[in-house]
Amino acid sequence: MFKNLLSGTIFTLPICTLLWLGVCSHALADDWPQWLGPKRDSVWRESGILRKFPEVGPNVKWRVDIHGGYAGPAVADGRIYLGDYQKSPEQTPPEKDKKQLIQGVERVACFSESDGKLLWEHKYDCAYGIDYPAGPRVTPTVDGNKVYALGAEGNLVCLEAKSGAKVWSRDFRKDFHAKTATWGHTAHPLVDGDRLFCLVGGEGSVAVAFDKHTGRELWRALSAPEPGYCPPTMIKAGGRNQLIVWHPESVNSLDPKSGAVYWSVPLKPQYKMSIAVPRQLGDHLFVGGHTDQCVLIKLGKTEPTAEEVWRGAHNKGLGPINSTPFLEDGYLYGVDRQGQLRCVELKTGKHVWTSFAVIPGDRPLGCGTAFLVKNEDRFFIANETGDLIIAKLSPEGYEEISRFHMLEPTGTAFGRKVLWSHPAFANRCVYARNDKELVCISLAEG
Predict the structure, then answer these.
(1) N or C: fewer beta carbons within 10 Å in the chain?
(2) Residue 107: pLDDT over 70
(3) Could you read off the pLDDT of 130-168 as tens digits, one per residue?
(4) Contact 106/82 with Cβ under 8 angstroms?
């Protein structure tokens, strides 16, 4: 029985309601089953997260050894899924300024969330002919009892999430005659309903929809010299779901059911580096890449149409490289190519402020990288030097609250050490990796 504190009356609640209240008092932790989180929006929705790091740093729950790669972890149902790559011991060091075929083994590994114990692994021989050949780039996508993983050279596998048993696989080079792009396959597969959407490559098959249960091709669409690196993205506008595919020549909206093209807007980033995920805010879509190559698109309200609002230029817009920007309350927050964090007024593209505080070091940096994740009223920012930062971002400026050094950067880019792997946030923890270890760090308050 419960007593109404206003009237003093006593009433009885059904047992199911009492059980529900008991569950809510111990809110279940959220998973991070794919790139950028459950909704692919860079929002971490768990509560009970610390506001500031302790002076001695947060508690490191465990560390486990892994191999090389840029792929971030996915966390689902008490398990962590990760891709990595182990080069052959006989591999000779590559000659300076000369591309070389690397021999090794690509792997999808599953670890216990509680202690980091290896539960299963799926391995296969894979030769790399790509630049930056550290390992896979793509975060596994977990959907129910299946996990989908895409290797750097286009090996797509569907595995049973609990056992690692292979359900089906596709080879983009053999099945679609797709040539691997310079920096490998980086576009994280997207599950929507019974479909799995991938960027593949090859004539007429930049975007391909598969039956997620069998791997059977449902449709293919678009042609371009290279598929690019940007993950396929689902938005809703004009009264319909639209699959957004940005390859190095244009931003395209497709019918997810058929692959038919609704609209296209030209956008050609330098070096064919279409990477950052397009971001929607209301009836606007921002897409941006290398060297101020960005565009704000107004989406139709009743039909799937597009109208260009403005394009990037010097002192206008944002040219993100590895980092997907965040849109909120009419403003865009993102990391530009030299590592400067910017606030941009969305309706005009005007720079509101710029801060170089997030990534330490001399400027200019090539492809400066930091990943932004929103939690309640603040952001957790993982930068390329291995720091995790708590900060508030607003049109008034960048307000850093706290930071700690999470991992050592083990990669190399433009003569400096970098950590270019997006962490996962789940179970009130952060899960992060470099080329040597996977670490679980508690971010629970108290």
Answers:
(1) C
(2) yes
(3) 999 999 999 999 999 999 999 999 999 999 999 999 999
(4) no
pLDDT higher than threshold 60 for residue 12: no
Burial 201-231 (b: 16+ CB within 10 A, else e): bbeebbbbbbebeebeebbbbbebebbbbbb
How many CB atoms neighbour CB 241 within 10 A? 16
For the chain, the first-to-last Cα distance in angstroms comes to 32
| Ramachandran region, residue 300 (left: φ > 0; alpha: ψ -120 to 50; beta: rest) | beta
Residues 95, 353: Cα–Cα separation, whole Å? 43
Question: Quick check: 128 and 85 in contact, CB under 8 A?
Answer: yes
Place of tokens 């993102």: 334
pLDDT at 14 over 60: no
Task: Determine contact, residues 311/317, Cβ cutoff 8 Å.
Answer: yes
Alpha carbons 443 and 446: distance in angstroms, whole number? 9
Tell me the two tokens of residue 143. 């959907």
CA 116, CA 397: separation in Å to the nearest integer? 38
- Rounded to whole angstroms, the Cα distance separating 332 from 347 reads 10
Residues 6+ apart with CB under 8 A from 357: 341, 398, 400
How many other β-carbons are positioned within 10 Å of the β-carbon of residue 302? 9
Give the mean pLDDT of the chain: 93
Q: What angle do CA 231, 144, 113 make, to 5 degrees?
A: 90
SS3 labels along the chain: CEECCCCCCEECCCHHHHHHHHHHCCCCCCCECCCCCCCCCCECCCCCECCCCCCCCCCEEEEEECCECCCCCEEECCEEEEEEEEECCCCCCCCCCCCCCECEEEEEEEEECCCCCEEEEEEEECCECCCCCCCCCCCCEEECCEEEEECCCCEEEEEECCCCCEEEEEEHHHHHCCCCCCCCCCCCCEEECCEEEEECCCCCCCEEEEECCCCCEEEEECCCCCCCCCCCEEEEECCEEEEEEEECCEEEEECCCCCCEEEEEECCCHHHCCCCCCEEECCEEEEEECCCEEEEEEECCCCCCEEEEEECECCECCCCCCCCCEEECCEEEEECCCCCEEEEECCCCEEEEEECCCCCCCCCCCCCCEEEEEECCEEEEEECCCEEEEEEEECCEEEEEEEEECCCCCEEECCEEECCCCCEEECCEEEEECCCEEEEEECECC
